[in-house]
Amino acid sequence: MPMPAITPADTQANAQENVQTGLQANVIASEADARAVAAEILTLMAELRETVQKEVELVCSGRLITAGRVARRKSELAKAFVTNVARVRANRSYLAREKPELLRVLLQQHGQFRTRLRHDLARLNTARAVSAGILRSLSNELRQWETKRADGAEHVALRKAA
User: Fold this and answer.
1) Based on CB atoms within 10 Å of each CB, which residue in 12, 79, 117, 127 is the most buried?
2) 8-38 pLDDT, tens digit each
3) How far apart are CA 74 and CA 72, in angstroms?
């Protein structure tokens, strides 16, 4: 059975429905919603911080492949965090009116999180720069060693030929 043609009106109606659904999913309309979002944000902040610290440890110890896997997890957590923070921002007036203490705690915790995360990310960037420098040095040394080895083999071959 052939698929029916999709008209621009269908596409627009679907887009509007998706926006409505997305807006409804983002609305914080009860104390339970507010507490759930706050709990999720606090959990994500803790997990993000732990993940960045783990990544720093791995990079410092030279376990770069494992650190790459941790970095992927960090990206997933960051995406979830940004989504939840956007939800709080979109509902800030409701939270300020109905749950001012919860909003105050979130803002305070978020400020502390940003400060600590900035420090942890600076450590991570430093560790990555040091690792990159070590890898460049090692690569240069291996290249020089290979060149010397090849030159030595060529010299031995010439002496045998003479």
Assistant:
1) 127
2) 444 344 334 434 444 456 889 899 999 999 9
3) 5
